[in-house]
């Protein structure tokens, strides 16, 4: 089987790339390990920034569809001290540049925008190898193979395409999230719902924090962030939900009950999400016929930019290919030169924007370092 453009990974970045190529009349196939689009949950809320994620959706000609799934009021933010004192309460007046959507809904509009058959589900990559002259062979776990003129790794942290370009591997970043959901918040978890407010809430402290989002359907999504070595988490039996919850909650002894309720009163078992990162400034030498985008290229610990950057990578790569369809190597070189700089530039933009909003509130225990985890 031959394919001119093969994208590995049906995450947001890979789907934006496929969509931008489609808008420009260029066919591509997306190969995804999951057996179906509903095989697993797609995460919680994402704030889509006007300086990267929204630009990508505009390039994909999906900005109206995006606005249709925005959840009003979710840009509001509260910062609480560990005793429950409100340090910051910022309302959503509808003018902010980072509207919130459910990640699953964003993925749905991207999938719906592609021709039937573009995404090949249940295609887990087992191996990739160069064939020369910019062509590559992809072998799938079921034994199937394909040969492609352009291979794009959009397959996340543990990319099977990255080894073609780089020997770098992700390393533990020193922090992890523990995720918990609380359902029917207003009626069953009223104190926690009041603490969170209408959008997001952060209760920061050195080495630990409780962050929560109000999602669609009256659901609170708690992210407990802990700076701990992996061995510390390995000693917790997460298959025993009650014991794991109690162990995590113990780290927050003495905190206000409306905050600890976001841990102890969960309606789902706690899920561990360790954070990994590639080396700072990760890059590679140009190799014909293959490139990377999103976490496959520049994985970092959560900083509010990951999904937005992946989408912008996909859009910029798609535009570069469309502008030089008969000189793909020039298109890839142009894309990579800009992409290598993008994570640093966008992180600097994000930090400057946040500082401009919240610098007056210097009682928020390092808020400026933690608030960027909203993406």
TrEMBL record:
It catalyses: a tetracycline + NADPH + O2 + H(+) = an 11a-hydroxytetracycline + NADP(+) + H2O. Pfam families: FAD_binding_3 (PF01494). The keyword Cytoplasm applies. Its EC number is 1.14.13.-. GO terms for cellular component: cytoplasm. It is found in: Cytoplasm. Keywords: Cytoplasm, FAD, Flavoprotein, Monooxygenase, NADP, Nucleotide-binding, Oxidoreductase. Gene3D superfamilies: FAD/NAD(P)-binding domain. Its cofactor is FAD. Residues 4-323 form the FAD-binding domain. InterPro entries: FAD-bd (IPR002938), FAD/NAD-bd_sf (IPR036188), TetX_monooxygenase (IPR043683). FAD binds at residues 47, 103, 295. Its main location: cytoplasm. GO terms for molecular function: FAD binding; monooxygenase activity. The keyword Cytoplasm applies. GO terms for biological process: response to antibiotic. NADPH binds at residue 40. Consists of an N-terminal FAD-binding domain with a Rossman fold and a C-terminal substrate-binding domain. Belongs to the aromatic-ring hydroxylase family. TetX subfamily. Monomer. An FAD-requiring monooxygenase active on some tetracycline antibiotic derivatives, which leads to their inactivation. Hydroxylates carbon 11a of tetracycline and some analogs. This is Flavin-dependent monooxygenase. It comes from Embleya hyalina. The lineage of its organism: Bacteria, Bacillati, Actinomycetota, Actinomycetes, Kitasatosporales.
């Amino acid at each position: 089987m031959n394919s001119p453009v093969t994208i590995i990974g049906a995450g947001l970045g890979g789907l934006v790339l496929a969509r931008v190529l489609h808008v420009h009349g260029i066919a591509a196939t997306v190969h995804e390990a999951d057996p179906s689009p509903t095989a697993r949950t797609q995460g919680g809320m994402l704030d889509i920034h006007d300086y990267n994620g929204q630009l990508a959706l505009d390039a994909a000609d999906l900005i109206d569809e995006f606005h249709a799934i925005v959840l009003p009021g979710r840009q509001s933010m509260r910062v609480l001290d560990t005793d429950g004192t409100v340090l910051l309460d910022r309302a959503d007046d509808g003018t902010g540049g980072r509207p919130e959507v459910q990640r699953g809904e964003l993925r749905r509009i991207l999938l719906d925008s592609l021709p039937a058959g573009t995404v090949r589900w249940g295609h887990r990559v087992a191996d990739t190898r160069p064939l020369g002259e910019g062509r590559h062979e992809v072998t799938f776990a079921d034994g199937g193979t394909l040969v492609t003129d352009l291979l794009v790794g959009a397959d996340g942290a543990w990319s099977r395409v990255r080894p073609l370009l780089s020997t770098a591997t992700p390393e533990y970043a020193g922090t992890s999230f523990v995720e918990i959901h609380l359902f029917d918040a207003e009626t069953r978890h009223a104190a926690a719902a009041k603490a969170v407010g209408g959008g997001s809430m952060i209760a920061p402290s050195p080495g630990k924090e409780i962050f929560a989002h109000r999602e669609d359907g009256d659901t609170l999504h708690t992210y407990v962030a802990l700076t701990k070595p992996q061995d510390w988490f390995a000693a917790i039996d997460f298959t025993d939900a009650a014991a794991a919850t109690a162990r995590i909650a113990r780290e927050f002894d003495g905190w206000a009950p409306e905050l600890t309720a976001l841990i102890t009163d969960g309606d789902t078992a706690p899920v561990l999400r360790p954070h990994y990162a590639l080396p700072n400034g990760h890059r590679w030498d140009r190799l014909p016929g293959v490139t990377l985008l999103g976490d496959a290229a520049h994985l970092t610990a959560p900083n509010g930019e990951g999904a937005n950057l992946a989408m912008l990578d996909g859009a910029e790569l798609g535009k570069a290919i469309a502008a030089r369809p008969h000189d793909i190597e020039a298109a890839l070189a142009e894309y990579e030169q800009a992409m290598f700089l993008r994570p640093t530039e966008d992180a600097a933009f994000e930090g400057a924007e946040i500082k401009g909003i919240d610098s007056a509130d210097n009682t928020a225990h390092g808020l400026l370092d933690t608030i960027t985890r909203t993406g």
